[in-house]
């Protein structure tokens, strides 16, 4: 992602209506990704947990938006302090920003940059939720989200994209969030699930997706919104870099989907819709850090490699015994690591920057920088997220009761069910205690 740069007075940019409009559209596209993620995750869980899964993504739009306005934007993109955090009192409450004040070095207002970055902050904790499906109290999730973006996301965003951030100064390339978003979320997911444990019936019950059409709808919305996520991260549309990123986003996603399907056909004998959707998301994840550095041919390589690696990685939870419900670790952590490291191999030196990867004569220098970025963010997010989950679990408790998990978290946490199996109409139960048993029975029947 482009960040603040210093320009000479003679070169001071002026507000561009075209770039401002373009970035507002990109911001709306990124916002759409969070409801898309909710559908993607919501279709992948069993019917008795689908509303809870939708809510875990949707509530992030509320929590993170308020925190971003109050102090998040200042922490992530304020004046650097020690290369680890930012702060600018003018950004607190977004109260000291001029109406047409430009983001330093660019032709868009600070308000536009702030709202674009807000949408990244919103979706990142929502990504974590997929690993925790079926078993987390909604109140505990709300608290975790607020703490996590404050202690983990805002500082890491500054490291990677803030002027003065230590990974930014090191020269780590992360065009749109391979480290700050996907590795960050994937490592956090792993840290939390190691603390809270497995779902009831893990490795015994099938736990199949209840609605593959919802999964495909969610994947399609994510693919559509990702063009804003990636192409918008150059913060303008004047020099063609954003256009290359747009093309590479499409190319890598297509390659990853096909690679995933080919792998599962060879490995399991079938082309599945879940595989197609997951492969597409894996490609989107992997090209996010790399798309501004590689050619379209390089994007095919990045997508294909990520598609196979992520398809292989989703099975590791059964081998090692960690319950990553919806494969956040397998897709987002592994895909983010792959895409970030592949910059060090496939960067051409002719798009985003002049940094070249190993295959283009750049040696191991950029690969080494990428590895530092990958593993520092991974370690920080993993450890801090696990500590936060442990503290919440020991205070208010992270998990619902076992009988609630078995009968259905939707009814217990939200007093609603996704579908009406009684034929009476309406999703809200007027008498939760009286209706809980028949709803649970219907859910069990559908899950079976």
Describe the model.
With 448 residues, the chain is mainly α. The protein has helices at 17-44, 50-77, 110-129, 138-161, 166-170, 178-196, 212-231, 241-268, 273-290, 296-313, 316-320, 328-346, 365-395, 402-407, 409-414, 432-447, and strands spanning 79-81, 85-87. Helix 8 (241-268) runs parallel beside helix 10 (296-313) and helix 10 runs antiparallel to helix 12. It is globular and about 65 Å long. The N and C termini lie far apart (46 Å). 56% of the residues are buried. The model is unreliable at 3-10 and 429-448 (pLDDT under 50).
Would you summarize the structure shown here?
The protein has helices at residues 17-44, 50-77, 110-129, 138-161, 166-170, 178-196, 212-231, 241-268, 273-290, 296-313, 316-320, 328-346, 365-395, 402-407, 409-414, 432-447; strands at 79-81, 85-87.
Task: List its salient traits.
2 strands; mainly alpha; 16 helices; 448 residues
Binned strand content: under 5%
The major pleated sheet works out as: 2 strands, antiparallel
Query: Which percent range fits the helix content?
Result: 55-70%
H/E series: HHEEHHHHHHHHHHHHHH
Compute the number of helices.
16
Radius of gyration: 22 Å
* Outline: globular
Q: Distance between termini?
A: 46 Å
Q: How many beta-strand elements?
A: 2
Low-confidence residue ranges: 3-10, 429-448
The average pLDDT score comes to: 92
Strand order of the largest sheet: 1-2
Judged by helices, strands and strand pairing, the structural class is mainly alpha
């Amino acid at each position: 992602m482009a960040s603040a740069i210093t320009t000479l007075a003679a070169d001071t940019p002026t507000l561009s209506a075209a770039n401002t409009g373009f970035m507002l559209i990109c911001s709306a596209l990124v916002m759409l990704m969070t409801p898309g993620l909710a559908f993607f995750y919501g279709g992948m869980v069993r019917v008795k947990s689908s509303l809870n899964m939708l809510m875990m993504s949707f509530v992030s739009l509320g929590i993170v938006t308020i925190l971003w306005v109050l102090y998040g934007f200042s922490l992530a993109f304020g004046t650097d302090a020690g290369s680890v955090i930012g702060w600018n009192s003018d950004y607190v409450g977004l109260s000291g920003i001029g109406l047409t004040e430009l983001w330093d070095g660019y032709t868009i207002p600070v308000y536009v940059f702030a709202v674009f970055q807000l949408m990244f902050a919103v979706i990142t904790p929502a990504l974590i939720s997929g690993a925790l499906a079926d078993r987390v109290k909604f109140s505990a999730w709300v608290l975790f989200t607020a703490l996590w973006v404050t202690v983990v996301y805002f500082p890491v965003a500054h490291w990677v994209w803030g002027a003065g951030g230590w990974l930014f100064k090191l020269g780590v390339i992360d065009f749109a969030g391979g480290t700050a978003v996907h590795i960050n979320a994937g490592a956090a997911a792993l840290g939390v699930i190691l603390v809270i444990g497995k779902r009831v019936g893990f490795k015994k019950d099938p736990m199949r997706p209840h609605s593959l059409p919802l999964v495909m709808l969610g994947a399609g919305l994510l693919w559509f919104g990702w063009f804003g996520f990636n192409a918008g991260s150059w913060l303008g549309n004047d020099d063609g870099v954003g256009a290359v990123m747009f093309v590479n986003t499409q190319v890598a996603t297509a390659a990853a989907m096909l690679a995933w399907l080919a792998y599962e056909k060879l490995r399991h004998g079938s082309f599945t819709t879940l595989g197609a959707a997951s492969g597409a998301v894996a490609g989107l994840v992997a090209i996010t850090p790399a798309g501004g550095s590689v050619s379209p041919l390089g994007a095919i390589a990045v997508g294909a490699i990520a598609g196979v690696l992520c398809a292989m990685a989703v099975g590791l939870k059964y081998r090692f015994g960690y319950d990553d419900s919806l494969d956040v670790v397998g897709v987002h952590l592994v895909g983010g690591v792959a895409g970030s490291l592949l910059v060090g191999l496939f960067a051409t030196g002719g798009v985003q920057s002049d940094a070249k990867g190993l295959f283009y004569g750049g040696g191991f220098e950029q690969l080494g920088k990428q590895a530092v970025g990958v593993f520092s963010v991974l370690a920080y997010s993993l450890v801090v997220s696990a500590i936060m989950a442990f503290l919440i679990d020991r205070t208010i408790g992270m998990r619902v009761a076992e009988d609630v998990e078995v009968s259905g978290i939707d009814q217990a946490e939200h007093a609603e069910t996704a579908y009406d199996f009684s034929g009476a109409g309406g999703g809200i139960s007027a008498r939760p205690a009286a209706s809980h048993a028949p709803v649970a029975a219907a859910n069990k029947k559908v899950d079976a």
